């Protein structure tokens, strides 16, 4: 399993609405994410608009490609795009910046056994 962390930048004037939209994500979007292999998915939002996402998947490219094939993802991305700044291709799912993991507690402990 791979742990994926990414960032995006939400427009500060739209933070409240962004939070509201994520309080009740469409059930078909939730089902699509699960079917595509997105597990333990969380989003964290700072007051300056920095969005940090985290999820676990067996294969990042396969998980993104599986979502790309769904109609619900196309609708969701179109609705979410105006919330973000600096999106290449105008889509949040193509514009997130994946961060390199530099520390994980369990990995450190396992190495000491």
UniProtKB/TrEMBL annotation:
It holds the Pfam family rhaM. InterPro entries: Dimeric_a/b-barrel (IPR011008), Rham/fucose_mutarotase (IPR008000). One of its GO terms (molecular function) is racemase and epimerase activity, acting on carbohydrates and derivatives. SUPFAM superfamilies: Dimeric alpha+beta barrel. One of its GO terms (biological process) is rhamnose catabolic process. This is L-rhamnose mutarotase. It comes from Micromonospora echinospora.
